[in-house]
């Protein structure tokens, strides 16, 4: 049984980086069949660096990956319609259940 020298925070960071890269590719390429090939290339790059255990080398790899992602970010990323910033965000908000304030009877006792 071998234990990983990396913390759970490191694993979460790498997963986050991987997901952000996949999401950015999907912003650029709408067709899933084309995106799938690009996703496999991203996965291969992560797998290629899977066994790097030197902290300095790892920091360089991650720094380069972040820089590449920042350079390739889509200027107008896709936002799901119902998510904040999407086209349907808060479009049909249900009416409040609070009592209606009666302006007329307030002034006349």
UniProtKB/TrEMBL annotation:
Keyword match Disulfide bond: no
User: What's one GO-annotated cellular component?
Assistant: mitochondrial inner membrane
Q: Which residues form the Complex 1 LYR protein domain?
A: 14-70
Compartment(s) of residence: Mitochondrion inner membrane
> Membrane topology type, per the record?
Peripheral membrane protein
Q: List the GO biological process terms.
A: mitochondrial electron transport, NADH to ubiquinone
Supply the alphabetized keyword list.
Answer: Acetylation, Electron transport, Membrane, Mitochondrion, Mitochondrion inner membrane, Phosphoprotein, Respiratory chain, Transport
What PANTHER family does the database record attribute to this sequence?
A: NADH DEHYDROGENASE [UBIQUINONE] 1 BETA SUBCOMPLEX SUBUNIT 9, NADH-UBIQUINONE OXIDOREDUCTASE B22 SUBUNIT
Q: Which family does it belong to?
A: Belongs to the complex I LYR family.
Purpose of the protein: Accessory subunit of the mitochondrial membrane respiratory chain NADH dehydrogenase (Complex I), that is believed to be not involved in catalysis. Complex I functions in the transfer of electrons from NADH to the respiratory chain. The immediate electron acceptor for the enzyme is believed to be ubiquinone.
Protein name per its UniProtKB record = NADH dehydrogenase [ubiquinone] 1 beta subcomplex subunit 9
Q: Which organism is it from?
A: Scleroderma citrinum Foug A
């Amino acid at each position: 049984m071998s234990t990983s020298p990396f913390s759970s925070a490191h694993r979460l960071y790498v997963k986050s980086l991987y997901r952000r890269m996949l999401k950015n590719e999907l912003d650029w390429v709408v067709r899933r069949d084309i995106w799938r090939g690009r996703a496999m290339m991203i996965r291969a790059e992560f797998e290629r660096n899977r066994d790097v255990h030197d902290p300095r080398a790892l920091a360089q790899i991650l720094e380069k990956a972040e820089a590449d992602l920042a350079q390739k970010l889509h200027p107008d990323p896709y936002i799901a319609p119902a998510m904040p910033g999407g086209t349907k965000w808060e479009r049909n908000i249900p009416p409040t259940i609070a009592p209606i304030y009666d302006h007329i009877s307030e002034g006349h006792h």
